[in-house]
Amino acid sequence: MSTETEALEHFYSAVNRNDMRAITRDFDPRIVRIEPEGFPTAGTYRGIAQVQEHVTKGRGTWAEGTCEPEKFLVNGDKVVVYLHARVRLQGSTEWVGGRFADGFVFRNAKIIQYLSFGERAEALEWAGIKD
User: Staple partner for 123: which of 28, 55, 89, 101, CB 3.0–4.6 Å?
Assistant: First the structure.
């Protein structure tokens, strides 16, 4: 397993156990998080504190559940992670979920960019990967 995929395994494990301090372990101080329009907390977040707050807010809507990596695809400094989320939101008895992808850019073994994609094909195009 590469340094990048190990970092991402750690990140998603920390999200799933709701350990918001641990998620930042592999963040570059100038990390940029982009969540696209149509997502619950769409916007651009800059720096460790903003990105940590953003992830904390999103994870805080879960009563229980997980966001599990299914596959890692690497092209140079870019990594696409295929994800399967299954969560029960606060105040709900229904489980919701879906499959989507996140994209990451690494520099010097640190995450400098973190993006989400509703469609896996969009993530692959962004990273220049053919699956």
Answer: 101
